[in-house]
Amino acid sequence: MRLFIWGDRFIAGGGEPDNWCPVLFDVLGSGLTLAVRRRIAYTKLNRVHNNLSCGVSGMEKLLEQITDELLGQVIIESVNPLEPVKVHSIPKSWRVLGTGNYAAVFCRQGAEQYAVKIYAPGRPGIEEEAEVYRRLGRHPAYSECYYAGADFLILKRLGGVTFYDAMKRGILITGQAIEDVDDALRYARSRGLRPHDIHAKNVMLRDGRGLIVDISDFLKDDDCSMWEDFKKLYYRLYWPVASRRVFPLPRPVLETVRRGYRLWRRWN
Ligand SMILES: Nc1ncnc2c1ncn2[C@@H]1O[C@H](COP(=O)(O)OP(=O)(O)OP(=O)(O)O)[C@@H](O)[C@H]1O
Ligand SMILES: [Mg+2]
After folding, report:
1. How confident is the model at residue 267 (pLDDT cuts 50, 70, 90)?
2. Domain check: are 140 and 198 in the same one?
3. 7, 57, 84, 173: which sits with the fewest CB atoms below 10 Å from its CB?
4. What is the pTM of this model?
5. Phi/psi of residue 69, nearest 5 degrees
């Protein structure tokens, strides 16, 4: 059992220690009971979470609900790492905010400001994701990580819809949102990170502004052209049509584009 507290320089906001939001990362030992694991986590949490808007008791309660209700019941299945995970048996009071190829993200009634991201069994990357949040600090276009467990993260919930869902529902993706994402990616680079895997399900639209919802691969070394490719399609195909008339794109169309793009990338 190891416990780490990432306290210093976790949040960039203003650079003041008062604004720093520490994250608690516990690598849970296999032999310990849930109760013992929670007790230890909460003790640390009490020490480090006094700056959180939720307060310690709100976070304690959520942790309890995650371990007692969610983790014990939900089944997250990742059959193919190139397709979204499948989620079964969602407990009452919880709902799915979204699924990615590695993880599912949930929200609990009464704790709507949080998003709980649970990695599917065997899917790597949780430590890297928590580390990226630590390096990013606080920025309006990104979420924040409040707590990192062995297989789940408690994140700030971002409102809005993904670009993918916006296209599906016929909501206009504004030029401002594209610029916001560009700015946020520049900011990530300025923090020594390498933006990666920025596709239509990893960026969101809220009140016409752009947000980045998934930063899990920002520690990877290789270049990723996904966002640049998305922008080419946006300016060449999407904007000329959608700026005049926006209409919903059926899911099969979006899925065909997604899979076609994946094949195109493999050959290029
Ligand atoms: N902080 C958040 N607030 C609100 N919704 C979120 C949040 N984080 C994730 N989501 C939703 O959950 C979905 C899946 O999350 P995420 O992209 O982080 O999973 P992933 O498995 O890492 O994805 P990928 O397949 O891109 O690696 C997102 O597309 C989004 O709809
Ligand atoms: Mg994702």
Report:
1. confident
2. no
3. 57
4. 0.83
5. -100, -50
